[in-house]
Amino acid sequence: MLSYRTNKPRIIVTTGDPAGIGPEIISGAIAKDEIASLGLFIVVGGKKIFESVLPSRVQKNISFHTLQEALTLGDFRDGMIHMVDPEVSPGDITFGKPSAEASRFALACLEASVKLIKALPADVPKAIVTAPVNKGGIASISPGFKGHTEYFQEAFASEMITMALVGRHLSVIPVTRHIPICSVARALNEEVVFKAIKQVAEYRRVISGMDEPVIGVCGLNPHCGENGKIGDEEIKIIKPAIDRALKIYSKIKGPIPADTVFYQAMKKEINIVIAMYHDQGLAPFKMVDFDSGVNMTLGLGCVRTSPDHGTAYDIAGKGIASSRSMEEAIKLAADRAHAG
Amino acid sequence: MLSYRTNKPRIIVTTGDPAGIGPEIISGAIAKDEIASLGLFIVVGGKKIFESVLPSRVQKNISFHTLQEALTLGDFRDGMIHMVDPEVSPGDITFGKPSAEASRFALACLEASVKLIKALPADVPKAIVTAPVNKGGIASISPGFKGHTEYFQEAFASEMITMALVGRHLSVIPVTRHIPICSVARALNEEVVFKAIKQVAEYRRVISGMDEPVIGVCGLNPHCGENGKIGDEEIKIIKPAIDRALKIYSKIKGPIPADTVFYQAMKKEINIVIAMYHDQGLAPFKMVDFDSGVNMTLGLGCVRTSPDHGTAYDIAGKGIASSRSMEEAIKLAADRAHAG
After folding, report:
1. Residue A2: what pLDDT?
2. Ramachandran angles phi, psi of A46, nearest 5°
3. Residue ranges of chain A whose CB lies within 8 Å of a chain B CB
4. Which residues of B touch A (CB under 8 A)?
5. Nearest-CA distance from B306 to chain A in Å?
6. Shortest Cα–Cα distance, A177 to chain B (Å)
7. For residues A25 and A130, what is the distance between their CA atoms, to the nearest angstrom?
8. What is the mean pLDDT of residues A176-182?
9. Bridge-partner residues for B253, per DSSP?
10. CB contact under 8 A, B285 and A220
11. Global confidence as pTM
C-alpha cells in the first residue's frame, strides 16, 4: 500500500499552450517560496519546455518524471517541484507562435493532469491549476474542444459544473455564459436559475472561504423590471427560483438590481453575486479584480482554478509576463483544495 | 435693459417631491459655504417648504420671492440664496407621505424652473439641479409624465438628449435605457448608436471636463461577439457607427468588451464609456460611484444634473439624509454651467 506522507494539497499545474506565457508564469510563481510552500506541486509540461524558463536557483528543487513514473510514484517528495512529461513530445516549440504541435502538447498535458488526479486517493486534498490554452488551436486538432471547463466536465463525468470568478473584491457566478445578448432572456427558466443558485449554495464555502456567505442574485432587467413594467423574468423566473433555493440555504437575497448588488458586494453586505449573463457579472468583476481575478470551476470533484487571462503570444518567452494572476490562482487552489 | 452684475453661474435648484428628502438635502448642501459660493442659487420650492428644514444660520442669507417677482427681477443679488415660490401652493405636506398635492407642487417647481431658465439671457451661464420626484405620483396627476429627462426634453423642445452618469471614477452613457434585456438587441441599429456617439462626442467637454477625452464604446455581446460567433451586432451595427463618428472626433475606441472597457476606464485610459444598455453601464458605475454619482442631462440648452437617488420617503424629514450626492450634483452643475 502506498503511503501519503504529507497532508499538503497536491497542486497539479498544467502548462497550457507551451508557446504562450504558461511556462514562464508557472516558473515565476513557483520560484517564489511563499507560493512553492503552499502545496506539493506537480507541474505537467515537461523538461524540454521548462528548461529554458526556469530560474537557475529553482532548478535544483525540480525533479523530472515521465507520466508513467508519476502515476506509479504513489507519493511525491515534499519540498520538491515535480515536473511531469506528458506522453506526447512538445516537438519544436517557438514562443509566441501558435502551432498544431503546441496545441497537441497542451491537450496531452490536460489528459495527463486528469490521469494524475484520478490516481490520487479520494481523501488527499488536491486541485488543478491550468495555464491558458489556445482553444481554437486545440479544437482544430481535437474537434469539439470548447475550453478547459467543458473538457474537465467530460473527463470527470460531472453532471453540472459552475464557473466562479473569484477576486479580492468580488466573487461572481454567471448563470449564462458565452451567448449573445439577444438569447439571454430565452436561455433562462426557473430550473436553470434554481440549479445555478443551488450549486452555488452547495459550493458556497469553496467559493467564498466563509461558512455562511450571503448570496445575492441579480435581476435580469433594469431596476429588476420595476414590478413587471420593464420585463417580467424577475417575477416569473428569478423570484420563484430563489424561493426554492431558500429551502436549501437561507442566506440568499434577490432579485437585486445589477446596479445595486455590486455596490453591496463591495461593501461586503453580499459575499457572492449570481449574475444572469456574462457581462452583467464580468464587467463589474474585471473592473476591480482584473489583476487578481481567478477563474474557478466547481463540480468536478476537485477544485480547478486558472488565471483570468489568455496565452498572450505577443509577449510570450520574453520574460515580461506577470505571474501575479497565476499566483492568485495557485493560492486559491491551495486554500480550497481540501473543500473539493 | 437689465444688467447682470455677476458672471457666477445661475444654479436653479428644484425641490423635487416636497415630502421626500429634497428640501433637507438642498438645505444641507447650500448651508455649506463651499457649495453656496459656487454660484448664484435660485431654489424653486418656496418659503413654506424650506422654513422647517433651513438651518437658522442660513436663514439670514435667504431672500424669498414669488415666481412673478423672480421672473421680473432681472438679476439676483450675489451672496444670497434666492428662494422662489411656484404658482401652486404646497398645501399640507407631511414628510415621508406621498400625496397628489406633493406631486402637483413638485411638477409646479419644474414648470417654474423652465420659466426661470428661459427668462435668463443666453450668454448667462446657467444650470438646473433637480431633487428627486415621485414619478408615479406626478404621472397620476399629469398623465404621460415619465421623468425629469423627458419632461425637460419636451419643455426645451430638444431634438435629442443624452443622459450621462458622471462620477469620480467613471463617466457612462447608456445608449438604451429602461427597456427589458430581451428588447435591447433589436432596439439598436447603426443610426441609434451613431447618434448617441455623435452627441457624446459633441458634449465630451461637458461630460468629462477635458478637451480631448478618449471615448470607449462597449460591444453588445460577451467578448464583443468573438468575430460574430456570439452575436454580430458589433460587426453590423457598432463598428460601422464608430467608423462614422470617427469622422467627427478621432478619439473614439471600440467596440471594446464590457469586461475590459471599465477596467481601462478605472486606469484613465478611457475617459467616457458608452454602454449599449442600462445595466452594462450602471452596474459598474454604481459599484464605484454610488455615493458620488451624478445624473447629467445634455442637449437641453443648459446642463441639468441630479443626485443619483430617489425621494427616500422612509427617512424624509428626519434630518438624517446625506446631502453628499446633491452637493456633487451642484458642484458638477456649477463647473459645467458655462458649457451649456
Report:
1. 45
2. 90, 160
3. 177-182, 184-186, 220-223, 225-226, 230-231, 233, 257-263, 265-266, 276-280, 282-288, 290
4. 177-182, 184-186, 220-223, 225-226, 230-231, 233, 257-263, 265-266, 276-280, 282-288, 290
5. 17
6. 8
7. 11
8. 95
9. B216
10. no
11. 0.90
Cross-strand pairs, A313: none
Non-local (6+) Cβ contacts of A175 within 8 A are A188, A192, A193, A196, A274, A275, A276, A277
Q: Whose CA is closest to A264, among B253, B24, B290, B177?
A: B290
Pull the grid cell for residue A44.
Answer: 505537467
Q: How many CA atoms, within 13 angstroms, populate the side-chain half-sphere of residue B324?
A: 9
Nearest-angstrom CA–CA distance, B162 and B296: 8
Searching chain B, which residue's CA lies closest to the CA of residue A263? Answer: B287
Q: How is residue A332 written as a grid cell?
A: 486559491
Residue B321 pLDDT greater than 80, yes or no:
yes
At residue A5, the pLDDT reads: 61
Contacts of B200 (CB under 8 A, 6+ apart): B162, B164, B173, B207, B215, B272, B274
Q: CA-CA distance, A45 to A276, in Å (whole number)?
A: 36
CB A258, CB B258: distance < 8 Å = no
**Cβ distance of B181 and A179 shorter than 8 Å:** no
CB contact under 8 A, A222 and B278: yes
Using pLDDT thresholds of 50, 70 and 90, give the confidence band for residue B46.
confident
Q: Does B165 have pLDDT greater than 80?
A: yes
| pLDDT tier at B1, thresholds 50, 70, 90 | very low
CB spacing of B279 vs A263 below 8 angstroms:
no
Pairwise CB contact (< 8 Å): B178 & A222: yes
Q: Are B36 and B30 in contact (CB under 8 A)?
A: yes
Are B263 and A287 within 8 A, CB to CB? yes
AA letter at A5: R
**Mean pLDDT computed over A184-210:** 96
Q: Do A262 and B283 touch (CB under 8 A)?
A: yes
Cα gap B317→A55, rounded to integer Å = 67
Chain centroid to CA B209 = 15
Quickly list DSSP for B189-200. Answer: -HHHHHHHHHHH
Query: What is the tens place of the pLDDT at every residue in A267-307?
Result: 999 999 999 999 999 999 999 998 889 999 999 989 999 99
CB-defined contacts A:B, below 8 A: 123
Q: What is the DSSP string of A286-336?
A: HHHHTTT-EEEEESSSSEEEEESS---GGGTTTT----HHHHHHHHHHHHH
Chain A CB contacts of B257 below 8 Å: 279
Q: Taking CB atoms and an 8 Å limit, are A279 and B284 in contact across chains?
A: no
Query: How far is it, in rounded angstroms, from Cα A37 to Cα A327?
Result: 12
pLDDT tens for residues B52-108? 888 888 888 899 999 999 988 767 787 889 999 999 988 889 999 999 999 999 999
| Contact partners, residue A334, CB within 8 Å, separation at least 6 | A9, A11, A38, A39, A127
Among A179, A181, A237, pick the best mutation site for testing chain B contact (most B Cβ within 10 A): A181
Measured between CB atoms, which of A280, A285, A290 is closest to B279?
A: A280
User: 3-class SS at B82?
Assistant: strand
